[in-house]
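Hello,

Following up on my earlier ticket. Below are the two sequence lines again, exactly as submitted.
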Amino acid sequence: MTETTTAPSGPSGPLAKILTPSRASGLRTSGTTLASSLLAVIIALGISAVMLFITGKDPVTAFTTIIDTAQNTDKLLEMMRRATPLIFSATAVAIGFKMNIFNIGVEGQYLFAALMAAEAGSHISLPGPLHIAAILAVALISGAAWAGISAFLKVRKNIHEVISTIMLNYIALSFIQWLFNSFFRDDSVEGLNIKTTIIEESGRLPDLVEGRLNSMFIIALVVVAIFWVVVYRSTFGFKLRASGYNATAASTAGISATKMTVIALLLSGAVAGLVAMQSVLGETHAYGPSATPIQLGFAGITVALLGRNHPVGIVIAALLFGFLDSTSAQLQLADVPNSIVKVMQAIIVLTVVIVNEAAVRRTNIKTAERARAELAAGSGA
Amino acid sequence: MSSTPAVELRGIGKRFPGVIANYDVDLNVRAGTIHAIVGENGAGKSTLMKTLYGMQEPDSGTISVEGTERRFKSPGDAISAGIGMVHQHFMLADNLTVLENIILGSEPGRRGIIDDTQARTRIEDIMSAISTDLDLDMPVSELGVGERQRVEIVKVLFRGARILILDEPTAVLVPEEVDELFVTLSSLVNDGATVIFISHKLDEVLQVSNDITVMRQGTTVAETTPENIDRSGLAELMVGSELPSPAGRTSDIKDDVRLNVENLTVMGVEGRPAVDGASITIRSGEIVGIAGVEGNGQYELCAALLGLMPSTGTVTVDGADLTKATTRQRHDAGLAYIPFDRHREGLMLNAPLWENTLLGREDEDQFGKGPLVDAASIRAYTVDIIKRFGVLTPNETTPAFALSGGNQQKLIVGRTLTTNPGVLVAAHPTRGIDVGAQAAVWDEIRRARDNGMAVLLVSADLEELLGLSDSIAVMFDGSITATLNPDDVTASELGSYMTGAHEEVAS
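Thanks for your patience. The regenerated structure is below:
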């Protein structure tokens, strides 16, 4: 050391030099996320191929079938149709995840909302758009109300939301069955296909592509866009994320944990209320135990995980799951069992989680080292 | 004493893309000594210790342990070479007992059955060798900071370490615990172990070490011994400038009361009051220090003032009664807080600095565009804080975890003081940060004080308390047991008040 430098007191010379290259760090992080997700999907496909081979199926045929499906417009529309409820479901889960709240109760919330919205929709008659808006409003409010029970229990009785939302799923199923059988069932319909009274024409959301894809897909994309703006750009979203990053620091900074918990769960429940709206508004125009799709709430947790709770990630993950679902019929024709698709979905999620965890750790370590090293070099310059 | 050095580093270099973190580092640690490594944050101490503990491989240079050249690819390699690390942030499982924590990861026993008796005997041996005593069956959650640290030390020794690296071990301790630690360290070296002690507290280094190596800007700049150098000489080697001092109490205390606390009581977990009827009045331009051994109600006092814990009694700021106010309403009334634990209470470590600046200030009009965050404005504001408070960081988008403790603290101080608070509750504002950052934080607090801010200063650093405070209140067992004039009291007298030895209340 020949120079006599004083302790660096501000980001003058050396720091100015450093400022430019590191600006890219945000981009670099999302690049890493995308790359690692792609890598995970490729690894998952590899594992699936091995599995197919072991079970005596021909992986080449299976993958050819998948690729063929991807070139079929009808199948792509089918993919979007199947992705629609998953986008709502995953967004509902992601809203909770953003502040470390685990809403496992999307299943119960959306089924309750579906019944209430279908029933309410069959009783009201309003001009078209208003009728649809009213049904959507009932769905939003019903979903939020059901999730609100968990919010109340968490805030007032200190009951963890994982426990209350899971339990409320069971309660929801029984409660819905009772409501349906006792009050809401359309007695004129007999047999297996029992439903609530069919909603009038004015309360039906038109298809985007006749018979293939309902406009609900557009609403799903709009909701995701709103989710992005609210969570990543709004002051409210900042408070939500701050509570998720570090709840203690957030409350020390005066952000009320109670208030944020309640709002997050209500919002999550409201979005969950939209999950079955494609079915209610666009397909069956009613609620029915066998007509309304089930299990989408749990699938939403997986999709949110795969999409890393990010709006873009959620859309991509939902489309991927929708695509894999839509290939299952085709695969069965090619003598590949339907269950292989579920297994592939599970493998993809597991590998994405593992690969991402590794990537995030590596990025974090590198970021920290780079920052320290840049400064060490900066002050020595 | 053997002539073979316990650790010998020659020409260690470590570069990261485009930069050099360590270069030409030479270190010679004699066996059976306490060897201090001093330097400011960012001087390369952490990089060097990571290299020695196998957390990263150096690009150049050699590492020899007890005469044998080694290459460490992982901490496991370093551990098997007899090197152990006591981290600054303890790595203990709270709900396990002391014994379970010590043996965790190297449980003695066979076929999956832990040999409790063997473990106990070995731990008792280790503890008697370093003349320390721990209740092995107590859950770690019930231990104080000093005891937790001793658990860490015993744990490292249990794994067979002969060379211990202690990273800023005194940063979290009160004076009494520091003395106990030094007794433990002396026993360790008497027992043949070697201690590498990383610190920037110069008095402690001079008191406890046999040899001192000074690092600056990525390399070792000097080797010396406590006999050959004094505090200011060491400081000059370290920072290349004079040692800052907290002194300079020229404050002009006005008449207007900014913070008035009357009969504040906070109930503790066991039904005993954690704060028992505390009354404090702070005027404009005044700094009131709170002295006390940690855990005597200081945290609860601050938490209650900020509305983070339920309490009885009254709190007024600038005449406004805040007794029933929420935390945010208290912030808005001009009550600001530099928290005890910056990682737990102050920062979102994974978030960029500008989001950390926004924390607590997100509702201010200047940072919002309607319901949206005005990112450009808060980022520009953060850049200003970075410049004004000398936060060393590549830029405002760097995540908080990438900064050194001192720079994290400077950001918190900046975020807090730029709200121009009327009353500042500052808890350990310079804990665990280097001398340069310490001076900067003191300067900023003094400047705000001179502009009329009232300060409640909680600190374990007696020098800081005596230097900055206009009066010092001693907290013992939840009560304010004495109010002292810093001009009339020495650090050792203050220490005896803190342990409850003095009971009378001075005027």
